[in-house]
Write a structure and sequence with these properties.
Elements: E1 10-22, E2 25-36, H1 40-60, E3 68-80, E4 95-109, H2 115-125, E5 129-136, H3 141-166, E6 170-180, E7 194-195, E8 211-224
Antiparallel strand pairs: 1-8, 2-4, 2-5, 3-4, 5-7, 6-8
Length: 225
């Protein structure tokens, strides 16, 4: 452990290293929207049937149930507004002429090379749209450990360069601080945002996971001798 007695004569240096990790987890959201003029129960049944086909397809592709999460289930009425001449004192209230049911499913994919085929397949299974295609790194501990070593080495080198320039010797290290700087926005190649796919589209879209980039910075304080 470091000496808790803080010397009077100290100096600090900073070291920095890049963190770069391949993205190995993909996320996207599949949405099923169903409109109808009949009873709500029939609309729900139709929507559920489509979503069940999507779940079955994803299961056949090796997606575990724990990687599926319903993120939206919304039933909205559609109104018919009567056309009333300007100046009409009383106008009939709007009437409901149907409903729109929207259900969204977030999918976590642990085999990123399957994303293109999954996007095509869920549309064929009944999804109206796909949105939020993104990639993250599941575990960056090894990359952070290596970056930490590099940052410490960078800081120590600066410490001895500073001591040489200042005409003093580097003493023992008395404190250190690590700053996990805000990561750079991950590189997302391929599709992102909202998109609507045709169920007739046969070729699977090419999706590239890219890499996530960030920085790790350490501040080392040494005693001056």
């Amino acid at each position: 452990s470091l000496d808790q007695t803080y010397p009077n004569r100290t100096f600090s240096v900073q070291g920095e290293a890049d963190i770069e990790t391949p993205n190995d987890i993909a996320f996207f959201t599949a949405t099923v929207t169903t409109e109808g003029e009949g009873e709500v129960a029939g609309l729900q049944s139709e929507n559920t049937e489509k979503m069940n086909r999507i779940n079955t397809f994803l299961g056949e592709q090796g997606i575990d149930k724990r990687d599926l999460k319903t993120t939206n289930y919304t039933m909205n009425p559609r109104y018919n507004y009567p056309s009333c001449p300007s100046g009409t004192i009383t106008c009939p209230p709007p009437t409901i002429n149907g409903y729109t049911l929207t259900q969204s499913l977030e999918v976590k994919v642990r085999q990123t090379d399957k994303v293109g085929d999954l996007l095509t397949g869920i549309v064929a299974a009944g999804a109206n749209s796909v949105s939020g295609v993104s990639f993250v790194t599941d575990d960056d501990n090894a990359a952070r450990l290596e970056a930490r070593k590099q940052a410490f080495a960078d800081a120590r080198e600066k410490a001895f360069e500073t001591a040489k320039a200042g005409g003093f010797r580097v003493g023992k290290m008395v404190t250190f601080y690590e700053d996990n700087m805000s990561p750079v926005e991950p590189m997302r190649e391929g599709m992102g945002g909202d998109m609507t796919l045709s169920a007739k589209a046969v070729p699977a879209p090419v999706i590239e996971p890219g890499v996530s980039k960030g920085k790790l910075q350490v501040t080392l304080t040494y005693e001056i001798r």
